[in-house]
Amino acid sequence: MTVNKMFVLKNISKTYGEMRALSSLSLIVEKGEMIALIGPSGAGKTTLLNILANTILPDSGEVIVDGITLHAYKSTKQFADKVGMIRQQFDLVGHLKVIHNVLAGRLKDWGFFKALLSLIIPQDSKIAESALEKVGLKDKLYERTSSLSGGEQQRVAMARLLVQNPQAVLADEPVASLDPVRAKDILYMLTKLASEEQQTLIASLHSVEYARKYFKRIIALQAGRVYFDLPVEKVTEELLSSLYSLEEEKQHE
Amino acid sequence: MEQYAQKKVDFMMLKAKLNFIKLSLIAAALLILISWLFIFIVEDASISALFSAKNALHTKQFFQGLVGIHEEQPAFFNIESWKDALSLTYDTLMISIIAIGFSAIGMLLTVIPAARNAAEGTLTLSRKWYNWLIFGFIRCIYVFSRSVPELVWAMVIVFVLKPGILPGALALALHNFGILGKLCAEVVEDLDMRPVRNLASSGASSGQLLFYGVLPAVMPKFITYMLYRWEVIIRTTIVVGFVGAGGLGQQFKLSMSWFHYTDVTLILICYLLLVGFVDLFSEGCRRLQK
Amino acid sequence: MNKRSYLSTILIIVFLFSLTSIQWNKELFHSGGGETLLQIIKSLFQPDLSISTLLLALKSAWITLAYAVTGISLALLIAFILGILASGVLFNSGFGRWLSFGVFRGTLSFMRAIHELVWAWLFVAAIGLSPFAAIFALAIAYGGALGRVFADILNDVPQEPLNALKSSGASKLHILLYAYLPMTASNMLSYTMYRFECAIRSSAIMSFVGLGGLGYQIQLSLSELRYHEVWTFMFFLIVLVSAVDLWSNMLRKRLIL
Fold first, then answer.
1. Within a domain: residue B268?
2. What value does the CA radius of gyration of chain A take, rounded to a whole number of Å?
3. By three-state DSSP, how is residue C31 classified?
4. Do B159 and C205 touch (CB under 8 A)?
5. Which domain CATH number covers B115?
6. Which residues of A touch chain C, with CB atoms under 8 Å apart?
7. How many Cβ pairs closer than 8 A exist between chain B and C?
8. Is C205 helix (H, G, I), strand (E, B) or coil?
9. C-alpha gyration radius of chain C
């Protein structure tokens, strides 16, 4: 049965030239799960997220999203209803007003002329307003996006995801370029919104502390393989130190 | 508090900036609207007249003339015509080279005093009261020479010189002198001053500073600009030929007025070949420089 | 010797060689050419400032400006469409993209390779003396130049926002509207303003195909040997070009935010 499974990965491999990013990785993610993806840099976290988001294709193996294999998806719209992605703040178009960046989440449902018209008279602006309200930026609706701070831009990106309203949200280092206070703020919001909307959330993180604080399941990657995959309460200090010490050993070689 | 005040000033400057842009856009839109209205109403331009039956016939005849239908021997299948055209192409190339050469010489002779940092005295490390005067004078000449199109310069020059290669080259040189001067003066202004100061502290005179400190540093950029202007000049050389300045342009004018349309085609082919060749050559030079 | 000095030496030799294609003797000058030169220079300091000439100059300056504006606005439209097509952003990789590069880039370089005045003359031969001959000529030559730069600007945008939009289900046209155009609009506008100054000069020389304006007046005054008037019109042209240059510089400085 795959009905309740959001993602099923079977023997996924991906290499970039000489470098092996993922080697026969298998994984099952249930609907509604909150997963943190940790591991040293170069372990394959970003590659894994991009494969789940269908932006890169694996060399071999099978990816099933909500019961349908990846290549059976017919349009980007159909897939965008299932999976949305949030990266660092470079994802937004700084030259546009905040509202247009948020409404870009609706583009999958709009035709060309509605999209064009919306740049002059914003369409479905109620949706954008309520999304911005949820992330606490209601007053910035008509500001130029580039005039916002890094943390605020990240919240705009979240509002866009709310408008897109996919079943699963993938977050690639969502707080990498933020200071600790803002980072906690963003992660709190991200996890809260995901559980409110009953979305599946997978976030890659540098910080183990955040992973433990905000997520329920932790998957550790090491050299393209799953090193451990445990509920958060079963993750021990020994496991963590061995996860990161392997990398140090490798660097010393 | 101070930070807040600074933020406020920044914000107000941004507002002023956006207002200027907005005003400019409105002005531009108005200008476009009024200009088109003027063309249609005062100048009496009519699109429907453009597509009249008479015009269609005219256009058809012209294009048939260009490709040489109804002509026993089109010029572009004639060896003699090719020889003539190629020799004119050669002349055109020579005009463009003389033109860029003259304008480069003129620019090199004037560019140092035309740089703001030279006028201030920071470039040559010698401060004279008359530096600003020379600066202003040369900048005015630059504006003067580049605002007047090549063709207008050519019209004036053919009053003094007999038609031929030289008047065309001079007209092109005059116009491009102003452009090169402005571009290159900006290069000198953006120069990294540290090596020059080092030289100065080791006791070099201002002449030595110029030749060992400034010129080597700015020369690559200068050559890039000269090559870029040369590409533009080669396109324009044909135009100064219209007023009798020799080359392909002169022949183009004659062939057009005698309705020798296959000659026109041949000239255009040579012209395009020449433009392509110069673009390639200049691209090659830029690569070599890197 | 390094590559750079080789290059400089070659360029200097080429220049010296080109000078040999002129016969350097007295034959270069018209008889009395020196005197004419003196007269022309003298009248530079005494331009004709009578009211009627000034009014005529003002009217001619407007004609020159109006044709430049119509020409460049049409060029902007052409460049916008062809530039987007030539940049290939609307095509998936592979054949379509390759075709767009070849066909549209080729068209653009053909359009700008030929000087606007040559275009104008060809148009006059084809459609007769019409204001549109000059406008179309400007539009084609400048459309080619602008379009090529627009295509380069479009190809130069950061990729992250594009990928983000793509993964949220946006189509190519959506991405054009919501990412490419907003990110490049100010750059495109800035470059158009830069070319606008050149368009003024090109519009002035359209007198050659019978268009009124400052170039036409200069031509007329020259043929009647009224050098004082020539300079009046020249100064109007210089002021017009400088004013447009100033405006475009001020706008360009503010557009780069």
1. yes
2. 19
3. coil
4. no
5. 1.10.3720.10
6. 53-55, 75-77, 79-81, 83-85, 87, 90-96, 100, 104-105, 107-108, 110, 112, 115-116, 119, 146, 157, 160-161, 164
7. 168
8. helix
9. 24
CB contact under 8 A, B166 and C28: yes
Residues A52 and A66 sit within 8 Å (Cβ to Cβ): no
Tens of pLDDT, residue by residue over C99-121, are: 877 899 899 989 988 899 989 98
How many domains are there within chain B?
2
Question: Which residues, in sequence order, are bridge partners of residue A36?
Answer: A203, A218
Check CB contact of C14 with chain B, cutoff 8 Å: yes
Residue with tokens 């001053």: B193
Q: Where are the domains of chain A?
A: 1-82+167-253, 91-165
Confidence of residue A173 (pLDDT cuts 50, 70, 90): confident
Strands A34-38 and A200-204: parallel
Per-residue pLDDT of chain B (290 residues; tens, 9 = 90+): 556 666 667 777 777 777 888 888 999 999 999 999 998 888 777 777 777 777 777 788 888 877 777 776 776 777 888 888 888 899 899 999 999 999 999 999 998 888 888 777 776 666 777 888 889 999 999 999 999 999 999 888 888 888 888 888 999 999 999 999 999 998 988 887 777 777 777 777 777 777 777 888 888 889 889 999 999 999 888 888 888 777 888 888 888 888 888 888 888 899 999 988 998 888 888 887 76
Q: Is B219 on the interface with C (CB under 8 A)?
A: yes
Q: Is the ipTM of this complex over 0.90?
A: no
**CATH number, span C44-255:** 1.10.3720.10
Which residue, A50, A55, A3, is CA-closest to A30?
A: A3
d(CA B277, CA C157): 31
Residues B219 and B130 in one domain: yes
The DSSP element (H or E) to which C120 belongs, if any, is: helix C116-127
A3 falls in which pLDDT band (50, 70, 90)? low
| C27, C237, C254: residue with CB nearest B162 | C27
What is the domain range of residue B269? 80-289
Question: Is position B212 within any domain?
Answer: yes
Class of domain A1-82+167-253: alpha beta
The span from the CA of A39 to the CA of B258, in Å, is 81
Smallest Cα–Cα separation from A137: which of A160, A115, A121, A117?
A: A160
Q: How far apart are CA B249 and CA B233, in angstroms?
A: 13
What distance in Å separates the CA atoms of residue C117 and residue C14, rounded to the nearest whole number?
A: 29
Instruction: Please say whether the beta carbons of A35 and A48 come within 8 A.
Output: no
Same domain? B40 vs B103: no
Strand partners, B259: none
What is the distance between the alpha carbons of residues B214 and B205, in angstroms, rounded to a whole number? Answer: 13
DSSP chain B: -HHHHHHHHHHHHHHHHHHHHHHHHHHHHHHHHHHHHHHHHTS---HHHHT-HHHHHHHHHHHHHHHTTT-SS-GGG-HHHHHHHHHHHHHHHHHHHHHHHHHHHHHHHHTTTTSHHHHHTTTTS---TTHHHHHHHHHHHHHHHHHS-HHHHHHHHTTTBPSSHHHHHHHHHHHHHHHHHHHHHHHHHT---HHHHHHHHTT--HHHIIIIIIHHHHHHHHHHHHHHHHHHHHHHHHHHGGGT--HHHHHHHHHHHTT-HHHHHHHHHHHHHHHHHHHHHHHHHHHHH-
Distance between CA atoms of residues A15 and A18, nearest Å: 7
Which band of pLDDT confidence, cut at 50, 70 and 90, is reported for residue A89?
low
Nearest residue to A220 (alpha-carbon basis) of A54, A35, A11: A35
User: How many Å is the Cα radius of gyration of chain B?
Assistant: 26
To the nearest whole angstrom, how far is the Cα of C65 from the nearest Cα of chain B?
8
Q: Which of A53, A91, A95 sits opposite C182 (nearest CB)?
A: A95
For tokens 């453009």, the residue is B50
Spatial separation of the C-alpha atoms in residues C28 and C22, rounded to whole Å: 9
